[in-house]
């Protein structure tokens, strides 16, 4: 099954420690080589993006940055047998932050992506 | 852990197990020199985790916990069995120093494990079961479910596989130059077999078992990562990514199977196609096109055709010509007939079909389906209808039978 993991966080003002970056690279390589992580990328700050809203029948476009306290940092797509496996990769990712970057708070949302198994008759 | 998760459930423990088991078994096999024993020890550690983690919570380094537990069991075992003194010494030394698995950055242990699990001395179904167990981390129950056989059958295959490895003294070793080709072929074949079982279920009411196909796809990715310099390993990954990319279009909304030319290509999985083409390019850069690279190249032609009409059949026919020389077999000839039928006209296709030796694939439903399609293209409707009817009688798959029966019914008089 396929899961989209979106990472949201409020970053401390300090740059991410080297040990964290090394740990993320290692974990990413591990997840990729095991065949579980099939895509991932970092996301630029919302200042580079925009929001398209429909409200009261009217479409409005607002350039970033947005006022949310947390920014979306990155996404990853996992292909795992169970939800728990995708959750475990996400847990390990956050545990790395806990270990190496005090003050970092964030959350990883694990969302199942519909696949052929969800189609009628499958 | 939040209040909602006081301790991990069985599913969480099994998820961690699936992530860790290949490295765990591989490292234990290196220490004990016995793949079967390593697998037993790893299973014992899993049982311990299933007992303890729901109460104590998941340890901070679950992989290390499993490794330490398994090693301690090994030491107990060897202490009781005085014949393994040297192993005791080796294990005692490493256990006192190591509290988490020694990360093997290049994955050499896993590669050795893969070669051992797919050892040609093992029967094919043993290789399949052992690979799913040791490399994909599936339980006996899950393997049995995937292959629609009773649990004890799978349990027996695994224990016999382990016994064979032990009896033949097969250890974790990388095959020498002279043997490498055979062993590589076996590894890739096992993964391909698993994929095919999932993708085109050979029996039962299911047209495919997506979970099993995905297990094989993950194994192919892992194998390609373990063997970055082997073109055929990249080729197999490319082939499986590109084939699996079509899975969402193989059913219609009612669940009936849809063959390649009729598939809604907007439902093909773009991410898997991209990954497949990337792997195919890696294979090309490594040179020497073997059977998997050639098949992946053919799948790539289909994947990059925006519509069925735009398919580059001339290139596909050429690739099948090469494939038939590299790996002559009747199924390749059959596909080659179809490709030439599209590239050069139905008569050319029927001429290739006629090169099949007498009686070859007579029981294979798709032989008759291909014949039916070529005959229909040639306007020989009555013969086409008869061929589709033969296809329907020869398939063991209910969904396929329905499809071929429909084809026969729709062929004009």
UniProtKB/TrEMBL annotation, chain A:
Cited Pfam families: YCII
Sequence intervals crossing the membrane: none
Domain YCII-related: 1-92
UniProt xrefs under SUPFAM superfamilies: Dimeric alpha+beta barrel
Cited InterPro entries: Dimeric_a/b-barrel, YCII
Stored PANTHER family: BLL7171 PROTEIN-RELATED (PTHR35174)
Family, per entry: Belongs to the YciI family.
Name of the protein: YCII-related domain-containing protein
Source organism: Amycolatopsis albispora
UniProtKB/TrEMBL annotation, chain B:
Domain RNA polymerase sigma factor 70 region 4 type per the UniProt entry, residue ranges: 114-165
RNA polymerase sigma-70 region domain residues: 23-81
Domain DUF6596: 183-283
Record keywords, A-Z: Sigma factor, Transcription, Transcription regulation
UniProt cross-references to SUPFAM superfamilies, sorted A to Z: Sigma2 domain of RNA polymerase sigma factors, Sigma3 and sigma4 domains of RNA polymerase sigma factors
Domain of life assignment: Bacteria
GO terms assigned for molecular function: DNA binding; sigma factor activity
Region (Disordered) location: 393-413
GO term, biological process aspect, one: DNA-templated transcription initiation
InterPro entries found in the cross-reference section: DUF6596, RNA_pol_sigma-70_dom, RNA_pol_sigma70_r2, RNA_pol_sigma70_r4_t2, RNA_pol_sigma_r2, RNA_pol_sigma_r3/r4-like, WH-like_DNA-bd_sf
NCBIfam families reported for this sequence: sigma70-ECF (TIGR02937)
Classification via PANTHER family: BLL6612 PROTEIN, BLL6612 PROTEIN-RELATED
Family: Belongs to the sigma-70 factor family. ECF subfamily.
Name by which UniProt lists this protein: RNA polymerase subunit sigma-24
């Amino acid at each position: 099954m396929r899961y989209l993991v979106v990472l949201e966080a409020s970053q401390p003002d300090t740059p991410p420690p080297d040990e964290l970056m090394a740990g993320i690279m290692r974990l990413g390589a591990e997840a990729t080589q095991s065949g579980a992580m099939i895509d991932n990328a970092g996301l630029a700050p919302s200042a580079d993006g925009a929001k398209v809203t429909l409200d009261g029948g009217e479409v409005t476009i607002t350039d970033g940055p947005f006022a949310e306290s947390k920014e979306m940092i990155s996404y990853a797509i996992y292909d795992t047998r169970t939800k728990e496996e995708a959750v475990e990769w996400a847990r390990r990712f956050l545990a790395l932050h806990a270990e190496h970057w005090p003050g970092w708070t964030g959350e990883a949302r694990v969302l199942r992506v519909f696949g052929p198994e969800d189609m009628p008759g499958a | 852990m939040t209040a909602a998760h006081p301790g991990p459930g069985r599913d969480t423990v099994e998820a961690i197990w699936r992530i860790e088991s290949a490295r765990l078994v591989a490292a234990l096999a290196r220490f004990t020199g016995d793949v079967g024993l390593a697998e037993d020890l790893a299973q014992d550690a899993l049982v311990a985790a299933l007992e303890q983690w729901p109460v104590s919570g998941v340890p901070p380094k679950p992989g290390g916990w499993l490794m330490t537990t398994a090693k301690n069991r090994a030491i107990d075992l060897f202490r009781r069995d005085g014949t393994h003194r040297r192993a005791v010494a080796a294990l005692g030394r490493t256990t006192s120093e190591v509290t988490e698995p020694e990360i093997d950055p290049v994955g050499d242990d896993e590669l050795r494990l893969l070669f051992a699990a797919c050892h040609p001395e093992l029967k094919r179904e043993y290789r399949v079961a052992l690979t799913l167990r040791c490399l994909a981390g599936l339980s006996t129950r899950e393997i049995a479910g995937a292959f629609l056989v009773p649990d004890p059958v799978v349990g027996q295959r695994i224990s016999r596989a382990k016994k064979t490895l032990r009896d033949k003294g097969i250890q974790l070793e990388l095959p020498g130059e002279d043997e490498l080709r055979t062993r590589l072929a076996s590894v890739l074949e096992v993964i391909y077999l698993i994929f095919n079982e999932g993708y085109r279920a050979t029996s039962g009411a299911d047209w495919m078992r997506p979970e099993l196909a995905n297990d094989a796809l993950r194994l192919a990715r892992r194998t390609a990562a373990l063997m970055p310099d082997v073109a055929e390993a990249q080729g197999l990954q490319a082939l499986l990514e590109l084939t699996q990319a079509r899975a969402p279009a193989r059913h219609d909304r009612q669940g009936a199977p849809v063959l390649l030319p009729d598939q809604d290509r907007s439902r093909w999985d773009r991410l898997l196609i991209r990954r497949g083409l990337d792997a195919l390019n890696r294979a090309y850069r490594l040179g020497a096109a073997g059977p998997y690279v050639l098949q992946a190249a053919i799948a790539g032609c289909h994947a990059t055709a925006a519509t069925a009409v735009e398919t580059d059949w001339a290139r596909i026919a050429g690739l099948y010509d090469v494939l038939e020389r590299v790996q002559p077999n009747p199924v390749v000839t059959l596909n080659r007939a179809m490709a030439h039928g599209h590239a050069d006209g139905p008569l050319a296709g029927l001429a290739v079909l006629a090169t099949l030796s007498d009686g070859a694939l007579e029981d294979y439903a798709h032989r008759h389906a291909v014949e039916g399609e070529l005959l229909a293209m040639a306007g020989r409707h009555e013969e086409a209808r008869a061929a589709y009817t033969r296809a329907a009688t020869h398939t063991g798959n209910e969904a396929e039978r329905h499809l071929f029966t429909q084809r026969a019914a729709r062929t004009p008089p």
